[in-house]
Amino acid sequence: MPKNRTSSAPRRMLRLRRESWGFVIGSFLFGLAATRVFGHAVGPQLDNITYFVGSLFFTAAGFIQLRLSGRPVPGAESHRVERYDWWAAVVQFAGTLLFNVSTGVALIHGLTVEQDRVWGWRPDLFGSTAFLVASGMAVVATTETDKLWDPHARNWRSTWLNMIGSVAFGVSAVAAFIVLGTDVVENAGVADLGTFVGAGCFLVAALLMRPPQPRYSPNQARTVS
């Protein structure tokens, strides 16, 4: 028998939970890899692997978010919120792909301990910029549905946490520049701190947006059969 249309709601909730957990795990791995204690304990290779795996979770979550956003129909009068939501998802997904590239290059390069002090993984400028632009679009979309300052709205808190996290990633990317004519990072401590703070903001935002677990109902099996 064909499935009842009501079955689409549980599937969407499942995808939303997967999206949320993807950002949670990716953020946790980025924050962990940014700590000097972890890097010194496991070495540069495993530290770079941690960054790379975290970027894969970011990309998977970003892809789910893009699929769920639903592209506005060309030629139709799409609501402003829908357009900004979709473009925010597109730009953020592009940013996750750029992080895949930057973390993958650091991993494939096979840095030694000495090289890691100078060249270890550093936030990709373009990926960080994409995250910042996407967060700005999400703020516009949120203020269309909620107030600019609405502590009681869950979307509001997550949106601004993502914005703060994107700013922190941007600061980290600037601090990770190599000083011209030298092999010295502009400010390695600020770069690591920015990545850690940004990852923490993304993690909390994802947890706040995590949809509740569905409650099983005896009628549920009949509605989806």
UniProtKB/TrEMBL annotation:
It comes from the Bacteria. Keywords: Membrane, Transmembrane, Transmembrane helix. The chain crosses the membrane at residues 49-66, 86-113, 125-142, 163-182, 188-209. The keyword Transmembrane applies. This is YrhK-like protein. It comes from Rhodococcus pseudokoreensis. The lineage of its organism: Bacteria, Bacillati, Actinomycetota, Actinomycetes, Mycobacteriales.
